[in-house]
Amino acid sequence: MSVTSAAVRDLSSLPQAVDSSRPLRVLQVISSVADVNGGASTAIWATLKALRNGTIHSEVVTTNEDGLHRLMDVPTNDFIRRGDDRIRFFPARGDRYTTSWPLAKWMVAHVRDYDLIHVHGLFRFAPVAAAHIALARGVPYVLTLHNVLGRWGMQRRRPLLKRLSIGLIEGRVIDGARKVHLCSADELTQASQVRRLGERPCVFPLGIELPPDAADHDSSNTEIARSLDKLVGRTVVLFMSRIHEIKGVDALITAFAAIHQQRPDVVLAIAGNGDKRLVGRLKELATELGVADCTHWLGFVQGVDKQRLLSLATVFVLPSHSENFGYAVVEAMLAGLVVVTTVNVPSGSFVTEANSGIVYDGTLRQLEQSVLTVLDMPTDERRLLGSRAASTVRDRLSLQTFGDRLEKLYRDAAATASESGFSRKA
After folding, report:
1. Considering only the top CATH level, what class is 24-207+399-419?
2. Nearest residue to 398 via CA among 359, 341, 350, 342
3. What angle do CA 393, 394, 395 make, to 5 degrees?
4. DSSP 3-state assignment of 424?
5. Which terminus, N or C, of the chain has the lesser number of Cβ atoms within 10 Å?
6. What is the pTM of this model?
7. Angle CA(418)–CA(419)–CA(422) in degrees, nearest 5?
8. Hey, how many other C-beta atoms are within 10 angstroms of the C-beta on 101?
9. Contact 4, 415 (CB under 8 A)
10. What CA–CA distance (Å, rounded) separates 286 from 24?
11. What secondary structure does DSSP assign to 307-359, as a single string?
């Protein structure tokens, strides 16, 4: 994943101040916008929408990666429109790092067309290449980490390789950012244990886009619709997120087996895609524990199917070991669901604030007890908690608030770059 480091040379020209009275041209750089990746890949659209009412002109460059070893069938030769947004896809190799030399070549030629670059994530080619090129060309950038330096991932996912990569490559990206955006105080604490961030961190949560009216949704997937029909009238424990080791799906299946012994009427719905081998192991676990027949594997669910699934659920569970923010939790809250999640999920703070669910300590026993507590609630009580949850999300995580915070972050970064002598190179 090396990036031509035409190493960041000394920047010699005078700093160029950005006129605060005119719109800022901001380029968003992210490795993928594939929905199957969840997290930052889906949050990017809310980011763009949040910026529309301000004075930020924003565009996206990314790759055509569509999950591990898959590529989207999209134009890759120019910017295209996705609704109100301009996005340009570049061909990726389909490897783990979403390598795309055409993207890097384009960045070298065009990075100075923008006042600021917003780099999303680390340990992928696109954001790392963009940051190095921005540094070399004298264009300031901000970095949103999206929890890539979280404790669980740093300790459990190729820890030695990550440490080496930070020492050789990503460290320069982190150090060169004018501002570093984190989604929670806990993420800041964990990231600071990996790399010194100084006075640059800005902590605020992502905004959430309200679901469109049913008439605006894409049409339903017939196969998924048939699977959802089987949940009608049932008591449904719902997990809906990317299927990954960090999400704790194995713990959920294990806890569900114990729950099912006490509540045989309950079914478990698991919505999301993931590594086929991991999904296979999880299905085997459900079989071993005797709950395969009452566990529904729905795959990736979106649009009208997602909204219907949320409406059918009784309780939403996200037992993650670590999260950048936990976008799925606020989606569930917005849908009026009682949520059970762990102390490791930052968006759980809104569950606590709304008193609309349970944030537990991450142990298997507490997971089982927490879900049973919600299932044993009278229906009217769950509805009251769900209403409180939706109201809290609408008040605290509006796109307007998120957009205002982002615009201030961008303008502060641009101003800081000018004041510190950060300059553009021809």
Report:
1. alpha beta
2. 350
3. 90
4. coil
5. C
6. 0.75
7. 45
8. 14
9. no
10. 52
11. HHHHHH-SEEEE--S--SS-HHHHHHHHTT-EEEEETT-TTHHHHHHHT-EEE
Task: Give the Å distances, CA to CA, from 26 to 56, 64, 414.
Answer: 7, 21, 10
| Ramachandran bin of 138, using left for φ above 0, alpha for ψ from -120 to 50, beta for the remaining angles | left
AA identity, residue 73: D
Give pLDDT, residue 174: 95
Dump pLDDT digits (tens) for 83-120. Answer: 899 999 999 997 888 999 999 999 999 999 999 999 99
Residue boundaries of the structural domains of the chain: 24-207+399-419, 214-396
Inter-helix orientation angle 364-375/249-262, to 10°: 50
59 CB burial (10 A radius; 0-12, 13-18, 19+): middle
Under 8 Å between Cβ of 194 and 335: no
Residue 365 has which token pair? Answer: 């026993």
Decide: 79 and 59 in contact? Cβ < 8 Å: yes
Give the whole-angstrom CA distance, residue 281 versus residue 52. Answer: 44
Element (H, E) at 82: strand 80-82
Question: Among all chains, which residue has been given the structure tokens 């989604």?
Answer: 183
- Averaged pLDDT score across all residues of the chain: 88
- The answer to whether domain 24-207+399-419 and domain 214-396 are alike in fold is yes
As a whole-number percent, the residues of the chain with pLDDT over 90 amount to: 67
Classify domain 214-396 at the CATH topology level: Rossmann fold (3.40.50)
Sequence letter at residue 196: R
Distance of CA 92 to the CA centre of its chain: 20
Q: 322 pLDDT band (50/70/90 cuts)?
A: confident
